[in-house]
């Protein structure tokens, strides 16, 4: 029986139906522009049937209803009845300090996810809409929450605390949490299998480089340091996010430009990073093309992007006191061989001294969510 994986964002709902036993996907798709005048459904089944159509999805409840109807459709559907779905795995971004692994969803878990909406106001509410819609529309089918933050709950206290007055940690939960945990956990495990070694014997740096970018130091299978922090803004330079910088830049910009907190937040999250420096865009493909044409600002953006990665590799080698492998994954990590060439060239002494393996591993976040969901329902 297949497992349905749901990933609900503020205006989208992505889904994938997996047969975990056979290790294949049965169908996948997404609804975009939920809540807008015209929403869109894209659906593909493993036997090659596809649909791409305008639909009416004013909210997430309706979007989930349409997804279920699509999965059961006479023509392009893949199941005959809802009861064929074994379980539902939800991607939930923030599990705070409460969840260090995936959990079966209960009323108590729902309340906690609600509580952590304060920490992830853009991400946790849509996940909750998806969960609540499934409770109504697929009642009786077990649901599991898989958190982006869970894998990083093994960070030691000296890594996750900020050096600001301690009371803000107790008052607001202000600390580093880290994100992309499902992806870092998956590629670290896969790297160990590829190297034919036990994960417990390895020191690995995983680099998830997509639109959002983060790196994690995985020591003996545990995340012990990661580059994203209280929010996904910290750490690496990303498509449109600045990553690490002097926090004093924030009040300086607000005063000089006479802008609000919302506006400065928008600049640092949406107008910075590769886009902000290059002035061209946040898409690595476009930047690669511009560099080939000799564009200096595109080159600067990429040099800065790479320099930050290199700096983190050095820091993580220090923290782990050694290194066995570096793994690159996600859109940028999987498709830009120059990244690997540059690491090999510019860090050649360290790479050869420590005999570091460099691997490119496509991430499979939805597959990992399906696997974790399957494990949880087996236990419950
Ligand atoms: P998201 O974080 O939204 O899941 P992705 O993992 O899809 O993002 O990564 C998006 C990034 O990957 C973009 O910067 C895009 O330019 C880059 N990317 C995707 N495909 C390629 C490619 N073939 N060559 C170079 N860069 C690519």
TrEMBL record:
Q: Which cofactor does it need?
A: Mg(2+); Mn(2+)
- Copy out the cofactor comment: Mg(2+). Can also accept Mn(2+).
Q: Which GO biological process annotations does it have? A: acetate metabolic process; acetyl-CoA biosynthetic process
GO CC terms in record:
cytoplasm
Give residue numbers for the site Transition state stabilizer.
Answer: 180, 241
Active site (record annotation): 148 (proton donor/acceptor)
UniProt xrefs under PROSITE patterns: ACETATE_KINASE_1, ACETATE_KINASE_2
Question: For binding substrate, which residues are annotated in this chain's numbering?
Answer: 91
The name on file for this protein is: Acetate kinase
What taxonomic lineage is listed for the species of origin?
Bacteria, Pseudomonadati, Candidatus Omnitrophota, Candidatus Aquitaenariimonas
Which gene is the coding source of this polypeptide chain? Answer: ackA
């Amino acid at each position: 029986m297949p497992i349905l994986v749901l990933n609900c964002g503020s205006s989208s709902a992505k889904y994938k139906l997996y047969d975990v036993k056979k290790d294949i996907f049965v169908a996948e798709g997404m609804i975009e522009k939920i809540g807008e005048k015209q929403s869109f459904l894209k659906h593909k089944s493993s036997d090659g049937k596809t649909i791409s159509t305008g639909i009416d999805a004013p909210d997430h409840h309706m979007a989930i209803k349409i997804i279920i109807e699509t999965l059961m459709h006479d023509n392009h559907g893949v199941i005959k009845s809802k009861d064929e779905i074994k379980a539902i795995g939800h991607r939930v971004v923030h599990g705070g300090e409460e969840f260090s692994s995936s959990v079966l969803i209960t009323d108590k878990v729902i309340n906690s996810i609600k509580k952590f909406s304060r920490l992830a106001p853009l991400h946790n509410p849509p996940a909750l809409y998806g969960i609540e819609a499934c409770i109504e529309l697929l009642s009786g089918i077990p649901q599991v929450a898989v958190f982006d933050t869970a894998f990083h709950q093994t960070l030691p206290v000296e890594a996750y605390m900020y050096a600001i007055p301690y009371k803000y940690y107790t008052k607001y939960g202000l600390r580093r949490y880290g994100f992309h945990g499902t992806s870092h956990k998956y590629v670290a495990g896969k790297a160990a299998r590829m190297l034919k070694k036990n994960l417990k014997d390895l020191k690995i740096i995983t680099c998830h480089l997509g639109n959002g970018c983060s790196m994690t130091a995985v020591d003996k299978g545990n995340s012990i340091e990661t580059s994203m922090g209280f929010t996904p803004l910290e750490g690496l330079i990303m498509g449109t996010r600045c990553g690490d910088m002097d926090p004093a830049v924030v009040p300086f910009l607000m005063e000089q430009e006479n802008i609000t907190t919302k506006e400065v937040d928008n600049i640092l999250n949406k107008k910075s990073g590769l886009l902000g420096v290059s002035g061209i865009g946040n898409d690595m493909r476009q930047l690669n093309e511009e560099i080939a044409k000799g564009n200096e600002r595109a080159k600067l953006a990429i040099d800065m992007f790479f320099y930050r990665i290199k700096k983190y590799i050095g820091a993580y080698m220090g923290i782990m006191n050694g290194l066995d492998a570096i793994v690159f994954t996600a859109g940028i990590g999987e498709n830009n061989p120059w990244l690997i060439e540059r690491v090999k060239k510019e860090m050649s002494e360290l790479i050869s001294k420590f005999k570091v393996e460099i691997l490119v591993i496509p991430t499979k976040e939805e597959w990992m969510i399906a696997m974790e969901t399957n494990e949880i329902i087996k236990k419950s």
